[in-house]
Write a structure and sequence with these properties.
The chain contains three helices and six strands; from the N terminus they run E-E-H-E-E-H-E-E-H. It is an alpha+beta fold. The protein has a domain of about 55 residues: Double Stranded RNA Binding Domain (2-Layer Sandwich). The chain is globular. The relative contact order is 0.13. The N terminus is likely disordered.
């Protein structure tokens, strides 16, 4: 997984970058790769991206920031806001 502010995700098997979780899942299915999501701060590994996001917020205090400066607890919350944000 890439950092929370860079956007996109990375395949930990081949190191390719994808713009969304859905694109990574498609890649993983094509390649037969079981994707794992690794914390870049402590190298702990999770089976799902959402588990990693919860862990990042709880253990490392990571939040997700819109370009306007508003902070959110999850990338999904930030994405919903960003669709409406005029910045």
């Amino acid at each position: 997984m890439l950092g929370p502010h860079t956007g996109g995700v990375r395949c930990i098997k081949c190191n390719k970058h994808y713009p969304s979780q859905q694109a990574l899942k498609y890649h993983s299915r094509l390649r037969g790769v079981r994707q794992e999501f690794q914390c870049e701060s402590c190298d702990k590994v999770f089976a799902t991206a959402s588990s990693l996001q919860i862990y990042l917020h709880g253990k490392h205090g990571v939040s997700f920031v819109c370009k306007c400066g508003q902070w959110y607890d999850s990338p999904a919350q930030r994405a919903r806001h960003s669709k409406k944000c005029q910045v």
